Amino acid sequence: MGLFTELKDSISRAADRLFSEQEPKRIGIYGPPNAGKTTLANRIARDWTGDAVGTESHVPHETRRARRKENVEIERDGKTVTIDIVDTPGVTTKVDYEEFTDEMNEDDAIRRSREATEGVAEAMHWLREDVDGVIYVLDSAEDPITQVNTMLIGIIESRDLPVLIFANKTDLEESSVKRIEDAFPQHTTVPLSAKEGENMDEVYGKIAEYFG
């Protein structure tokens, strides 16, 4: 009986561990086009898994479909969090094909604008239905007070999702982190340069703290 009891207890403990493990949290990376969302997603994924999430480009709307990198385990300051990164298309109120005509012919520009519009709709679906938290990326060299940013932050707040605002591109001369802090004082703002890998220790510390 003693051996049977020990075996039963061992199986029970293993089952408890199995069912107590939480699914990775889906963290959506949101923000306007060209804020550096994919650059940040790639930086995080490469640092912790060795793989990239998607293609980076200076052309707006390079990301036109949500892309997901699963089971990214981040450890910082004694905390560990496992997340699925969801790199979403840049959200804007209007996608004009003329934005792309300097980089491609008119037919390709029109096709890209259609795909980008569909990508905005997909990003909004993820935000309303399928993410557990948000990393909101802003270009710190641009004015953060826009209709899109105000709308998206409002939706995030209405869903009561944990959110971190990342003031990206601090390597640029015209960068102003304070401008973003002043625009959204109710949320934590973390400065960084995803391109240069600056301040990533704080980035990972905040991710572990907010989403762990």
TrEMBL record:
One of this protein's Pfam families, by short name? MMR_HSR1
Q: Which residues form the G domain?
A: 26-169
Which InterPro entries does the entry mention? GTP-bd, P-loop_NTPase, Small_GTP-bd
What is the top-level taxon of the source organism? Archaea
Q: Which PANTHER family match?
A: TRNA MODIFICATION GTPASE GTPBP3, TRNA MODIFICATION GTPASE GTPBP3, MITOCHONDRIAL
**Name used for this protein in its record:** GTP-binding protein
